[in-house]
Amino acid sequence: MNWNECWGEWIIEELVRHGTLCFCISPGSRSTPLTAAVARNDLAKSVVFYDERAAAYFALGHARATGKPAVLICTSGTAGANYLPAVIESSIEQIPLLVLTADRPPELRDTGANQAINQTHIFGTHVRWFFDPGCPGPEFTPAALLSTINHALSKTQRPLSGPVHLNLPFREPFFEKNEAEKSIDLLLPP
User: Fold this and answer.
1) DSSP letter at 176?
2) pLDDT tens sequence across 125-166
3) How confident is the model at residue 37 (pLDDT cuts 50, 70, 90)?
4) pLDDT of the residue at 184
């Protein structure tokens, strides 16, 4: 496993361990480490949405009905911006919501593409807490990552329930190549 895979697994496992089981996924390549980890977790309940607004309102309704935070997962760029109306409602109505936006690494942001917008504080003052730990790597220890997830979950419910935003940048490759892929690379000319 590479760092992206490890972080995806650790994040999702920690959320599930705390009883956060509803994952609303707006698929995209940058969020692959997170969505693959959800798919591999037998306890995680996921719904895939091709419209981010629909995902956000489904998550909001689920959280309103259960009182537990639902998790939104999306790829980089404008995908997260489509969550804004539901994030605002979550904030005003004090409904627990955890938004995980995948992002590009800093060197690939603000390049003029809609997938490379600056997502830092994209939800402004409507979230109870925002954090961007940087790209997965040994500098941010597993203990620090798990502590961050625990803190984020607690902020969705205390002292005032509402949305929390974690911006998670991932560098390619998202996964280690398996043996079959490595052997194919050996056969292809450079």
Assistant:
1) P
2) 999 999 999 999 999 999 999 999 999 999 999 889 999 999
3) very high
4) 47
> Angle at Cα 31 formed by Cα 29 and Cα 37, nearest 5°?
115
Residue 75: the pLDDT is 94
Range of the domain at 30: 3-187
Q: With contact defined as beta carbons under 8 Å apart, do 132 and 139 qualify?
A: no
DSSP-derived secondary structure for 112-158: SSGGG---TTTTGGGSSEEE---SSSTTS-HHHHHHHHHHHHHHHHS
Looking at the structure of the chain, the number of domains it has is: 1
**CATH number of domain containing 34:** 3.40.50.970
At what angle are helices 52-66 and 84-93 packed, to 10 degrees?
A: 20
